[in-house]
From TrEMBL:
It comes from the Eukaryota. Residues 22-33, 182-196 have a biased composition (Polar residues). Residues 1-42, 171-196 are annotated as: Disordered. This is Uncharacterized protein.
C-alpha cells in the first residue's frame, strides 16, 4: 500500500498568524471598552471625511413631469372601467397597467401606454391590441401607430387609468358625457306644471 504524502495542516481561522490576517481597526479599543456598555463592539467608524465629486443624472424627474403633463391632458378624454367594458375593434386607448412585482410582491403602476384594439376574447378578459405611440406636441396629445407595431395581449383586469382617444367607444362615451353635461346645465330651469 502506498503511503500518501502528508500535507501541511490547514490553519484554523483563529490560529492564523497576525502577519497573514488583515487588520481591522474599529477605533480606540481601550477607550471604547471603558465607555461603552451600550455600544456594540463592531461599531462602524469613518476614517476620513469625503466629498461628492460626481452625480448621476436622474431622468426620472424629467419623465415624472412629462407623465404629469400627459395625465393632465388625458383627463379631458372619456374613461370607463376596463374590467366591465366591452372594447370595440379600432378603439384607440391610452392606459396604465397595474401588475404585481414577483420579486417584492408590491403593485407596480406602469407609465402611459397607447394601443389600438384589434380584438377581445369571448370572456372579455384579454384584449389584443397593436402598439401605438403617445406624446405631447404643442400642448396637445398626439397618437399614431408605432413604426414597428407589434400585437400584444393585455389582461383587462390589469388595465388602469383607461382613456379612450379615438374610435367607436370614444364617440359613444363622448356623446354620453355631452348629454349628461347638457342635462345638468338645463336641469334647474325646467318646471313641471301640474294639470287640473
Amino acid at each position: 500500500m502506498a503511503k500518501l504524502a502528508s500535507l501541511p495542516p490547514r490553519a484554523a481561522c483563529g490560529n492564523q498568524d497576525k502577519a497573514s490576517r488583515p487588520s481591522v481597526s474599529l477605533g480606540n479599543g481601550s477607550q471604547d471598552a471603558s465607555k461603552g456598555a451600550g455600544k456594540s463592539k463592531y461599531e462602524e467608524r469613518w476614517k476620513r471625511p469625503y466629498k461628492v465629486v460626481a452625480t448621476v443624472l436622474d431622468k426620472r424627474s424629467e419623465q415624472s413631469s412629462m407623465n404629469d403633463s400627459l395625465t393632465a391632458l388625458l383627463n379631458s378624454y372619456p374613461t370607463a372601467a376596463a374590467a366591465s367594458f366591452r372594447f370595440v375593434p379600432t378603439d384607440v386607448i391610452a392606459y396604465k397597467t397595474l401588475t404585481l412585482c414577483v420579486d417584492t410582491w408590491q403593485p407596480v403602476l406602469s407609465e402611459w401606454r397607447c394601443g389600438q384594439v384589434q380584438s377581445m376574447d369571448v370572456q372579455g378578459t384579454a384584449v389584443e391590441m397593436s402598439t401605438w405611440t403617445l406624446a405631447i406636441t404643442d400642448g396637445s396629445i398626439v397618437f399614431h401607430e408605432a413604426i414597428h407595431s407589434e400585437q400584444q395581449s393585455v389582461q383587462a383586469s390589469e388595465i388602469n387609468d383607461l382613456r379612450f382617444l379615438s374610435g367607436p367607444s370614444y364617440s359613444s362615451l363622448r356623446n354620453a358625457d355631452d348629454e349628461q353635461n347638457a342635462s345638468k346645465t338645463t336641469g334647474g330651469t325646467e318646471q313641471v306644471v301640474p294639470q287640473k
